[in-house]
Design a protein that fits this description.
heterodimer; A: mainly beta; OB fold (Dihydrolipoamide Acetyltransferase, E2P); 2 domains; about 40% strand; B: alpha/beta; Peroxisomal Thiolase, Chain A, domain 1; nine-stranded mixed β-sheet; two-stranded antiparallel ribbon; 11 strands; binds zinc ion
Chain lengths: ~130, ~400
């Protein structure tokens, strides 16, 4: 079964994977066992590029408690291929530093947490 | 118009605001006493045979298992009770469950309640609690707040359609103005477009005045099967349509992030059930958790073409005296947003409007009302259509 834990294990090793449906070809991100398009459970891990373009973004100054030490930061929805999108955080000081369409790369940082979840942190770096 | 699903015979709402020194259960007592005082049957309490309680978070009062507790405080010690949780739509989930109870024939009279006591915690903790209604594995993990999620929709809506921060500000200005006429509203303060634009950025492009309030409050309604409604009031309000659906929890999984398609689907279902069109609606309470949400809702319920929601505000179409008045109560924006209470409080406002009891903010001659309530970033949806019998 494709699981969120394995998705993040693979990401920790530096690779971004979705789950590709063997019946209809849909790629799920985050990956899941049942295809949301055709209900098939025939799937396989599918390696995705770790680059894409910003589809939308926000600049967060009032952060949730667990992220306060990092604020302010941007959170961007990144379009990877077609309808496959992922999300990442970018350390910037002003929302004017980024715009829709900018090319970005995912940068993975290990978390080191002793308690669940030990998933990596996902940042974005602007590509020039 | 089709036969009603159920009828509302009584409604109550606590004062909304920062209610220091009063717990959730006591806020609900306030709402409940108002509701039963509206019934002409002084014994209505004994006629209630089932209760549904909308409540979102265990975090604020360190309290789960609230249904029997809330019932207990209302004086019920052997009532079948169920808690409903659908984030910001928990109250509407309670209402729809009660409609199921009545429509199935199992019960004749049901209590619908919603409550949230939020101001016990610091703002960052409240935000953390609210963020729990988004996908932990993706959205929470990225450091998003709810303002951040709606900001992502706003950025794209601005980019794609040219919607402006000023248009968003007009939602806040309108709803704050309406709230000055609602004695139960959290804030009674006229604001200007400039006030909104100058307020502190929370999650760009959303600023403090683009966001709904962290509010303590409770609301309740008593619903019955339509045939017996007039035993309890001379002026019942019928529930003539109810629509609901879900969508992906994570925004990244929706094809078009500035559309909240579930709103349109639930609205269509509710209107078809009622046998009416959107143009037959006289007054609406829409889920303005953030100003951009109200703009998207205009487009989804079908009073504006996609991308033209902001224009309606410039034309004043949704003002109290416009052709489609939205949020006469002041909405989540200014009346306040005690999460679990919100859906029921929308119904309370329409109950007053359709009975001609809304005072200064009365929409004249309102016969049909629509309430739209959603959970999270639009992953649960409820739309109810109400009508008076005049
Ligand atoms: Zn498939």
């Amino acid at each position: 079964m494709v699981t969120i834990e394995e998705f993040y294990e693979r990401l920790k090793e530096g690779e971004l994977y979705g789950a590709k449906c063997k019946r209809c070809g849909n790629i799920s991100l985050p990956p899941r066992e049942i295809c949301p398009k055709c209900f098939s459970t025939e799937n396989e891990w599918y390696k995705l590029p770790k680059v894409g373009e910003i589809e939308s973004y926000t600049f967060i100054t009032v952060a949730p408690k667990n992220f306060e030490s990092e604020a302010p930061y941007a959170v961007c929805i990144v379009k990877i291929i077609d309808s496959v999108k992922f999300i990442g955080r970018m350390k910037i000081d002003d929302p004017k530093e980024i715009k829709i369409g900018d090319k970005v790369e995912f940068v993975i940082e290990k978390n080191g947490s002793e308690t669940w979840p030990s998933w990596p942190k996902i940042y974005l770096k602007k590509l020039s | 118009m089709n036969k009603p699903l159920a009828s509302i015979v009584a409604a109550g709402c606590s004062k909304f605001g920062k209610r220091t020194g009063i717990m959730a259960r006591e806020l609900l007592v306030e709402a409940f006493l108002e509701a039963i005082s509206r019934s002409k049957d002084p014994d209505i309490r004994r006629k209630i045979k089932v209760g549904f309680f909308g409540n979102f978070s265990e975090m604020y009062e360190h309290q789960s298992h609230v249904a029997p507790l809330l019932a207990d405080w209302l004086g019920f010690h052997d009532l079948p009770v169920i808690r409903t949780e659908d984030a910001c739509a928990s109250g509407s989930a309670a209402l729809r469950s009660a409609i199921f109870a009545i429509k199935s024939g199992l019960y004749d009279v049901a209590l619908v309640a919603g409550v949230e006591k939020m101001n016990n915690r610091k703002t960052n903790e409240v935000l953390e609690g609210l963020a729990m209604a988004s996908d932990f594995a993706i959205e929470q993990w990225s450091g998003l707040t709810f303002a951040g999620i709606f900001a992502l929709m706003a950025t794209w809506h601005m980019h794609k359609y040219g919607t402006t921060e000023t248009q968003m500000a007009l939602v806040a200005v309108k709803n704050h103005k309406n709230a000055t006429m609602n004695p139960k509203a959290h804030m009674q303060k006229i604001i200007t477009v400039e006030d909104v634009l100058k307020s502190k950025v929370v999650a760009w492009p959303l600023k403090l005045y683009d966001c709904s309030l962290i509010t303590d409050g409770a609301a309740c309604v008593i619903i019955t099967k339509p045939e017996i409604a007039e035993n309890f009031t001379d002026n019942p309000v019928d529930i003539i349509g109810s629509g609901s659906c879900s969508d992906h929890e994570s925004l990244i999984e929706r094809e078009e992030i500035s559309e909240i398609k579930g709103i349109g689907k639930a609205t269509k279902e509710a209107l078809e059930m009622a046998g009416i069109k959107i143009r037959n609606v006289d007054v609406a309470e829409l889920h303005d958790c953030f100003t951009i949400a109200e703009i998207i809702e205009y487009e989804e319920i079908g009073i504006a073409e996609k991308g033209y929601g902001g224009k309606l505000l410039e034309e004043g179409a949704t003002n109290l005296d416009g052709w489609f008045p939205v949020n006469p109560s002041g909405g989540l924006k200014a009346k306040g947003h005690p999460v679990g209470a919100t859906g029921v409080a929308q119904i309370y406002e329409l109950f007053l409007q359709l009975r001609g009891e809304a005072g200064q903010r009365q929409v004249k001659g309102a016969k049909v009302g629509l309430a739209q309530n959603m959970g999270g970033s639009g992953s649960t949806h409820f739309v109810h259509v109400l009508s008076n019998r005049i």
